[in-house]
Design brief:
By secondary structure, this protein is an alpha+beta fold. 16% of the residues lie in helices and 32% in strands. It comes from Pelagibius litoralis.
Length: 293
C-alpha cells in the first residue's frame, strides 16, 4: 500500500494512494487519525484497508498538501557513511560500526515545504536517503527478524550545513538547522518493495542537473542490520524514523562545491517510492513569510 499524510480542504488526514488518485482514510475508517500512528498501532485496521483498497470517493493526489507522515516521532536516528563511494569522497576511513546521529523535530519538514538556507551559512548541502518507519518496536532485535519491524519506507533529504557540521567531531549542529530535513510525501509498505528496499535507484537533482545517482543495494549496512544494531542500545518504538545514509555526489565533495541556492528546487527520488521536492529559500525571506501568515 501507498500512503500520504496531508491536508485537503484545510483538514489533515491519511490518504491511501493508487496512481494519481487517493481516498481519505481518516473519513472512511474511524481510528485512523491525522497521521500514520493510527495505522501503525492497529494491524487489524491495516488488514481491513488492504482488503477494501481504494474504494469510495477519490480525489487527485495533487490536491493534497503533504505533512509529516508521523507528526511527532519519538526518535529520528540517521546513518552517516553508509555508501563506500560517499565515504571515500569525504576522506573518511570505512568504519566497522555505523556512524549514527540524531535529528530534532524542528529540523524536519514535509515534502513541498521550503527548505531553509540559514543566514549564518551558504553551505547548505543535499543528501538523498532512504528512510524507514518502525512499525513494531523492540529491543535486541535479531537481524533475521528486523524487517518484520518495518511499517514502511519513505524518502528523506538530510539537508546538511557543512561548515557547522565540521565545527565539532559530533555532527549535531550541521544536521539540525530548522527546516532542513524534508520527508515524504509517500510512505510505501514493505510488501510493495524488494526486501529491505534493496535494488532501488536513488537520485537527487536540481532541474536537469543530476547531483547524485546510485542504488540502495550499495548500502554498507542494510536495513535489517541497521535495525538490529540500533536496537542493541535503545528500544525502538512504533513511529521511530531511521534514515539510511546518502550515496556519493554530495555538494561539498564537488569541485567547486555545489551548495543549494535560494530559488532552486531540489528533488530526491527513490524508485518505487516517489519524489520529495522542496524549494530552497533564504532564512530571512522565510522568516518574513511565516511572520506574515
Amino acid at each position: 500500500m501507498r500512503f500520504v499524510v496531508g491536508s485537503h480542504n484545510s483538514a489533515q488526514a491519511v490518504f491511501l494512494v493508487e496512481d494519481d488518485r487517493a481516498v481519505n482514510l481518516s473519513l472512511a475508517h474511524p481510528g485512523v487519525g491525522a497521521d500514520l500512528m493510527g495505522l501503525i498501532n492497529a494491524p487489524a485496521l491495516m488488514a481491513e484497508i488492504a482488503r477494501v483498497g481504494l474504494s469510495g470517493e477519490t480525489l487527485p493526489v495533487a490536491s493534497i498538501t503533504p505533512a509529516l507522515p508521523v507528526a511527532k516521532p519519538g526518535k529520528v536516528i540517521c546513518l552517516g557513511l553508509n555508501y563506500i563511494d560517499h565515504i571515500k569522497e569525504g576522506g573518511y576511513d570505512v568504519p566497522d560500526y555505523p556512524a549514527l546521529f540524531m535529528r530534532s523535530l524542528n529540523s524536519l519538514m514535509a515534502a513541498g515545504e521550503p527548505m531553509v538556507r540559514p543566514s549564518c551559512s551558504e553551505r547548505l548541502d543535499y543528501e538523498a536517503e532512504l528512510m524507514l518507519i518502525i512499525g513494531t518496536g523492540g529491543r535486541h532485535i535479531a537481524e533475521a527478524d528486523a524487517l518484520d519491524h518495518v511499517f514502511g519506507y519513505t524518502v528523506f533529504n538530510d539537508g546538511s550545513v557543512r561548515d557547522y557540521q565540521r565545527k565539532t567531531h559530533q555532527w549535531t549542529p550541521g544536521k539540525n538547522f530548522d527546516q532542513t530535513g524534508p520527508i515524504g510525501p509517500f510512505v510505501v509498505t514493505p510488501d510493495e518493495l524488494p526486501d529491505g528496499a534493496t535494488g532501488l535507484k536513488i537520485e537527487s537533482r536540481v532541474g536537469d542537473e543530476i547531483l547524485q545517482s546510485a542504488n540502495t543495494s550499495d548500502m554498507l549496512w542494510s536495513v535489517a542490520r541497521t535495525i538490529a544494531t540500533i536496537s542493541e542500545f535503545t528500544t525502538l518504538e512504533p513511529g521511530d524514523l531511521i534514515a539510511m545514509g546518502t550515496p556519493p555526489g554530495v555538494g561539498h565533495a564537488k569541485t567547486p562545491p555545489r551548495w543549494l541556492r535560494p530559488g532552486e528546487t531540489v528533488e530526491v527520488e527513490i524508485e518505487g517510492i516517489g519524489i520529495c521536492a522542496n524549494p530552497i529559500v533564504d532564512e530571512a525571506d522565510w522568516l518574513r513569510s511565516t511572520a506574515a501568515e
